[in-house]
Amino acid sequence: MTDHADPRPMTTILPDAMPPEAPLAMPTQSLRRFEPSKERRRPIRRFAVPWLARLAVFGGGAALTAYGVWEMVQVVSVSRTTVLQWVLVALFSVNFSWIALAFSSAVVGFIALLWSRRPSQAPTTLTRRTAVVMPIYNESTARVFAAVAAIRESIEETGLGSHFDYFLLSDTTDPDVWIAEERAFLALRQRLGPDARLYYRHRPKNTHRKAGNIADFVTRWGGSYDHMLVLDADSLMTGDCIVRLAAAMEADPDAGIIQSLPLVINRNTLFARLQQFAARIYGPVIAKGLAVWMGRDGNYWGHNAIIRTAAFAAHCGLPDLPGKPPFGGHILSHDFVEAALIRRAGWSVYMLPELEGSYEESPPSLIDVAARDRRWCQGNLQHMRVIGARGLKLASRQHFATGIMSYLASPFWLMQLVVGLVLVLQTRYVKPEYFTSEFALSPIWPRFDAERALALFALTMGVLLAPKVFGLTLALLRGSIRRPSGGGLRLVLSALIEILLSAMLAPMMMLIQSGAVFQILAGRDTGWQPQRRDDGSVPFRDIVRRHRMHVLLGIVTGVSAFLISTSLFAWMSPTILGLVLAILLSWLSGTLAAGLALKRWGLLLTPEEAVPPPIALRAAELTRELAANGFDEADGLRAIHADPALRAAHEAMLPPAEPRRRGAIDAERALAQAKLVDARSIDDAVAWLRPKERMVLLHDRALVALLAGLPGEAPADRQAYDEAAE
């Protein structure tokens, strides 16, 4: 950040940053013991469990898996089957069952969407209060405050704005970003006036990360609100969508969590536009299938969902897992666990996938996705210690199993490729074993039914691609999607581009996720870095460093496959090509130029990209206005030093100082104080204080007073003295 402060000082100290506290107890839940609460003891009878849909999904998936495994057994049973061939069958069984289940769920979603109804009219009245909460962590203040302001404006336009309050819950650890947040908050609330109902809180310690951030809000202010709508830092929701969620929660006294389906918007790099297109065209089919068979036993994705606050407080206090990370400690993927716990207590969790007006953004490059996936991978593998918790619904356990398998699938596919390669190598180069420990009239020699293998490969590809075909078919049938997506021809061509590029990127993702799984199994913990949300390209040297081993592996695999058999090389060519071109593909997919070029040609378009939602346009406009203030580029210490009103507001927002035990010296505070005492100007303080010392300073009213007392420039006589001493 640049070392300058906004020249325009705060002229008004606004009211309290947070409303009066309304505590709500949030006891820690046990995973080993569970006693149903009396008020939720009776099962929900008004809504039938969707047994038919579950039979179709799981029965259809099991039948398809059984057929695929039978065919695989026939492929390897041409002659006496070796141990390695049985290993190949076992790996195939696991991998095929995974895609078969996704296929059967997509079939159910496709059929349901063909018969889906239009949303009912928007509600005109509400009776309950809802807190709209956005946890933030070292984010761009212009972006997040603009999003909240746009959401607030949209809700106000519904005429039901008085039922909603807005909270920005900061866990920021960067001192400059923290002060930028406070300045943006003060400026925005001053702009909105006395009825802003906009609040801001910064946590001194980000204990338990996002889950702890939400829990802190619930235990301190949750008693004032019947519901809370949880957003992510890149979330955007229309007032109509939010009001409909609030009305749905009011109309259903059994609902604990109601999840919307966020669509990806505002993406411009090639990689992000691939994700945006896939989420818009294929996502609704997958989401609808999940919603149908899950019924009231649904899942929670951590944002763009409304939650019954009292039920969440009573049943979603997360325990720490025994032991050290990566499998112990606080739960990273908290949302799945919260959904399972609130469902265990008898509250319903479900999704409304047809609800329009829920949006999010996606990472701009493959490397950014890999960084996020590393954290998600650890969180989902932690669920292996939660899946057996006492009292969970079977569907909740299935959600955990799905999340776990979504990351274990990559190493399973990798092992299947390796075993297949070894078998072909053995067939070509290893001599048959004529004399074994068991009597045999013929040698043990791995053989395959080539014709059946080809047919099974075609079946596997069909099952894998079917959800995309279903989504594309629905988009072609619906003019409201087809026309703004460039028309039928461009839509089909876009789908082909997405399938081709995704297939070439898949080998890299397989290796990246496999590496993450192996690291976690080896005991390596992940950090918690803020997600990069802009469209800036990743430096080329970082791309080379990240993918150089992928390229080397691709070259070695390609040469080995070609030496073994040209047919093997041809069969593995998509994987080999994706790895050999890993650096080029990762660089190209993360660039703006490639994504914008396809956009100009009308490819990979989505309806929301062709005709941006008004709330997205308004958020972009507000982002530009707030960015013009320069808060994100300013040095936090200089801003506090230059503006007495900001300094007073900052001190007013600080929590009460914790008493210090005699003899307990905080090293960071001592260093910060010593540097401030030795400083002759604000320039010295800015130059000398490290980030941790700055955070300590900004949390301490006495140190802030020392900072405020520093002159803007060092006295001339002291400057001369310093120069002479040097």
Automatic annotation (TrEMBL):
What membrane topology was assigned to this protein in its record? Multi-pass membrane protein
Which UniProt keywords are listed?
Cell inner membrane, Cell membrane, Glycosyltransferase, Membrane, Transferase, Transmembrane, Transmembrane helix
Glycosyltransferase 2-like domain sequence ranges: 229-439
Location in the cell reads:
Cell inner membrane
Q: Which residues form a coiled coil?
A: none
Pathway recorded for this protein: Glycan metabolism; osmoregulated periplasmic glucan (OPG) biosynthesis
Transmembrane region positions?
A: 47-70, 90-115, 400-425, 453-477, 489-505, 549-570, 576-598
Q: What is its main location?
A: membrane
SUPFAM superfamilies linked to this entry: Nucleotide-diphospho-sugar transferases
Q: Can you tell which superkingdom this protein's organism belongs to?
A: Bacteria
Q: Name one Pfam family in it.
A: Glyco_trans_2_3
In terms of InterPro entries, this protein maps to: Glyco_trans_2-like, Glycosyltr_2/OpgH_subfam, Nucleotide-diphossugar_trans
Extract the NCBIfam families matched here.
PRK05454.1-3, PRK05454.2-1, PRK05454.2-5
Protein family membership: Belongs to the glycosyltransferase 2 family. OpgH subfamily.
Instruction: Write down what this protein is called.
Output: Glucans biosynthesis glucosyltransferase H
Q: Which organism is it from?
A: Chelatococcus sambhunathii
